[in-house]
Specification:
Helix content is 76%, strand content 0%. The chain is mostly helical. The two termini are 40 Å apart.
Length: 474
């Protein structure tokens, strides 16, 4: 049953890639793919679960005398429904609710003219200069917020500045690359760096000290190449007009909404750091406070109810198909994780290659196809942090790569963070920009993927050089 799961995943992935050619929305394909894979997993459960989750399955069955009397097939279905589905859907729901909260906050700022205040201060009309400005802003913002939130904010700013869609695709592609590169060197910049940071595999000083320069190079190389393709100046009057509701608010009030919205987003990683609670809780706190604040503002205004853009109205404007696409594709990847396919790939790489640099580079490339979270989870499960004092024998030098702030974990953070830029659906940032801007998968593949690969490999070489110069050994 594992082979049909892999084959159908590949077919579904190709259909998503060919969305514009077959004229079937990628969200529909992703939803169907995810649900079919879970159905196949359930059908093959009596053969898959004993091989992959034997200990967890037996523990679950042993706690219920009712389950022990059921046939194996029914036991497996019960295990999938009550353990695996809930476990993976819980993780995915955290991402979806975070996305809903962040998109709502950004849309709220936009509809009330908050971003118009920012764009009015961007005085340059030269497209190349604007590209560099947006890329650098994205790179450093993603290290503070995270790459997903930053991409949403920056793409909304971009829509205020560039009217031509194909040109926006070039700018949007750089935003994806800069967001992923910026998130790779910060412990709160990407969900995978958060995972490694919370687990104790890396420290803040280790990430920043070793990954800032490689991450910067991975952005600068594509930026230099793409900037050569962009010529001329912005058309006058590109910026969209502030809505009637935005005009009903004073500049001070619109600025206040902008500041509170950005502070609300910045609050999320701070909240996560202090409480260790999932980021979606922090973003929902921010959304709730903004909801109350804007309701109070509207209560003071004499605006017809049909013209009011309160939060319930804003919720109708967020990109629901993108959220459903996330649900489908993440559920599909969850099956690859639940069935042990991703773990098997990681184990094969370690056994057959046994070189941390090549393994990580390949994992980075793989992260452009499947979600980087299960890849990192598989790596964490394969390599428990060793105690340096207990290491001995011929494998000592190799295992030292896996201690806290070891080369393997640092390079893994870089590779799976930056590697997702090679395909538009290889990262959360790419998926959300693809959804908002309707970027064609094949267009990105033809025009951006090789450029992103060049940046990825350039940054990887910089990191390897750093290790050689500072640690003196590869």
């Amino acid at each position: 049953m594992l082979l049909p799961i892999v084959v159908i995943f590949i077919i579904g992935y190709l259909l998503i890639a060919l969305e514009h050619q077959i004229r079937i929305d990628k969200a529909a394909t992703a939803l169907l793919l995810g649900m079919i894979l879970w159905t196949l997993y359930t059908i093959g459960a009596p053969y898959i679960i004993p091989l992959n989750d034997a200990a967890e399955f037996q523990h679950y069955i042993s706690n219920s005398t009712t389950l022990q009397s059921l046939p194996l097939a029914q036991q497996c279905i019960n295990f999938i429904v009550n353990v695996k589905v809930i476990e993976h859907l819980g993780d995915i729901s955290e991402i979806l609710f975070f996305l809903i909260g962040a998109m709502t906050i950004v849309e709220l700022i936009d509809i009330h003219g908050g971003f118009s205040i920012v764009t009015s201060h961007i005085t340059t009309r030269k497209k190349q200069k604007l590209l560099w400005l947006l890329a650098i802003m994205t790179f450093f913002m993603s290290a503070i917020l995270d790459n997903l939130t930053t991409s949403i904010v920056m793409i909304m700013l971009l829509r205020k500045l560039i009217s031509d869609q194909k040109e926006r695709w070039l700018f949007g592609s750089i935003i994806v690359i800069a967001a992923n590169s910026g998130g790779a060197w910060s412990p709160i910049g990407d969900i995978t760096t958060i995972m490694l940071w919370v687990k104790g595999n890396v420290t803040t000083s280790g990430l920043v000290g070793y990954l800032l320069l490689p991450s910067l190079v991975s952005m600068l190389v594509p930026l230099l190449i793409i900037s050569r393709k962009i010529k001329g100046e912005l058309n006058s009057g590109t910026e969209t007009v502030v809505s009637n509701v935005g005009n009903a608010f004073t500049t001070r009030e619109r600025m206040l909404i902008l500041i509170l919205g950005i502070l609300g987003l910045i609050f999320v990683p701070i909240f996560k750091g202090f409480t260790s609670l999932p980021p979606f809780i922090g973003v929902m706190i921010s959304l709730g406070l903004l909801w109350i604040f804007t309701d109070c503002l509207y209560n003071k205004k004499r605006i017809d109810s049909s013209q009011q853009h309160r939060i319930p109205y804003v919720l109708k404007r967020i990109d629901t198909p993108t959220i459903l696409f996330f649900l489908g594709i993440l559920m599909a990847v969850a099956v690859l994780q639940a069935t042990g396919i991703l773990t098997a790939v990681a184990t094969w790489l370690d056994k057959e290659i046994h070189n941390i640099y090549i393994i990580n580079i390949l994992l980075g490339i793989l992260s452009s196809i499947v979600d980087n979270v299960p890849l990192v989870a598989a790596a964490i499960g394969m390599y428990p942090l060793p105690d340096p004092s207990t290491l001995s024998g011929s494998e000592t030098a190799y295992m030292m790569h896996f201690i806290q702030d070891g080369t393997f974990w640092q390079f893994l953070s870089y590779c799976v963070g930056v590697g997702g830029s090679m395909l538009i659906i290889g990262s959360a940032a790419g998926v959300v920009v693809m959804g908002i801007e309707r970027i064609n998968f094949m267009w990105y593949l033809r025009h951006i993927s090789f450029i992103a690969l060049c940046g990825y490999l350039a940054g990887a070489l910089v990191y390897i050089a750093e290790v050689l110069l500072t640690k003196g050994v590869l």
